């Protein structure tokens, strides 16, 4: 087996194409990357849908994950059953701490180049700016934007605490990785080999979830020691604002009633 880390074979969308055409056998892209090919794969990124990890895994190990895996299979790819954890995203700012949806009005915040992220922050009344991650630190430093959002380990590794003063534990989006394979190559494996590979990858995925949980706990303490303050916030106010803005209704239409029904069966009524 040959492993190519750190984007040696190109960007994520390039490698998604490579695994589809068979140049790569396996790939672990974010759900938001797969969503460029399979739009419903972004359903786990519905803003403020999941209140905690219990709901995340009930959905992604259950009806939502099964629905997305079927959609991925329709695109000539095979997704393994266990989704890997990329963490909840949190909001940081160099200005006043984010306390509720009212804090978002006019806030210049960097977001990924992702339609659902732009839609969510626009619905909250913010002024989202889509920037590549490589541009985030400089954009914050030069005040092109005043805020950003990422999982805590990313905030730590990118040293964003140097240009941000507070972090609101919003848990506004959960993101994860699908472990995918080229569909033809997977189908060509003997059944016993498929079983062995599936078991090994799924077990590794469960272990990775525990590793991320432990990492997040230590990262918050480290960020606090570096001067980043943390606060809880009124997440229900964010849900209410998105509901008023028609965000949930819009994405229910885009993902379709069946996929949305699976999501709401776990998290409760959103739209």
What gyration radius follows from the Cα positions, in whole Å?
19 Å
Indicate the low-confidence ranges by residue numbers. Answer: none
Give, in spatial order, the strands making up the sheet with the most strands.
5-4-6-3-7-9
Q: Classify the secondary structure makeup into a structural class.
A: alpha/beta
| Global outline | globular
How many DSSP H or I helices?
12
Report helical residue fraction: 40-55%
CATH class, anyone?
Answer: Alpha Beta
**What value does the average pLDDT take?**
96
The CATH topology label is D-Maltodextrin-Binding Protein, domain 2
N- and C-termini, Cα separation: 46 Å
Order of helices and strands: HEHHHEEEHEHEHEEHHEHHH
DSSP E strands, number: 9
Largest sheet: 6 strands, mixed
Give the DSSP E fraction (strand runs of 2 or more residues): 15-25%
CATH architecture: 3-Layer(aba) Sandwich
Structure description:
There is one protein chain. With 271 residues, the protein is an alpha/beta fold. It has one domain (12-255): 3-Layer(aba) Sandwich (D-Maltodextrin-Binding Protein, domain 2), CATH 3.40.190. It is built from twelve helices and nine strands. The strands form two sheets. It has a six-stranded mixed β-sheet, sandwiched between helices. Helix 5 links the parallel strand 4 (108-111) and strand 5. The longest helix is centred in the C-terminal third of the chain and has 35 residues, at 191-225. The protein starts with 11 loop residues before the first helix and ends with a helix. 39% of the residues are buried.
């Amino acid at each position: 087996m040959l492993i190519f880390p750190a984007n040696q074979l190109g960007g994520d969308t390039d490698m998604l194409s490579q695994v589809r055409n068979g140049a790569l056998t396996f790939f672990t892209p974010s759900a938001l990357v797969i969503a460029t090919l399979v739009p419903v794969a972004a359903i786990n990124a519905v803003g403020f849908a999941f209140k905690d990890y219990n709901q995340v895994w009930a959905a992604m190990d259950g009806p939502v994950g099964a629905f997305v895996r079927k959609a991925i299979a329709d695109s000539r790819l095979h997704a393994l059953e266990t989704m890997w954890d990329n963490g909840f995203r949190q909001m940081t700012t160099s200005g006043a701490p984010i306390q509720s949806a009212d804090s978002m009005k006019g806030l210049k915040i960097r977001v990924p180049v992702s339609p659902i992220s732009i839609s969510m922050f626009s619905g909250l009344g913010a002024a989202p700016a889509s920037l590549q991650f490589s541009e985030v630190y400089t954009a914050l430093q030069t005040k092109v934007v005043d805020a950003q959002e990422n999982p805590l380990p990313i905030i730590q590794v990118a040293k964003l605490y140097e240009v941000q003063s507070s972090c609101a534990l919003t848990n506004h989006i959960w993101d994860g990785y699908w472990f995918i394979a080229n569909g033809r190559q997977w189908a060509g494996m003997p059944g016993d080999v498929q079983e062995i590979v599936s078991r090994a990858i799924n077990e590794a995925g469960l272990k990775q979830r525990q590793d991320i949980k432990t990492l997040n706990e230590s990262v918050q303490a480290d960020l606090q020691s570096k001067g980043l303050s943390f606060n809880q916030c009124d997440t229900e106010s964010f849900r209410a604002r998105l509901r008023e803005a028609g965000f949930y209704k819009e994405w229910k239409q885009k993902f379709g009633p069946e996929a949305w029904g699976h999501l709401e069966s776990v998290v409760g009524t959103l739209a």
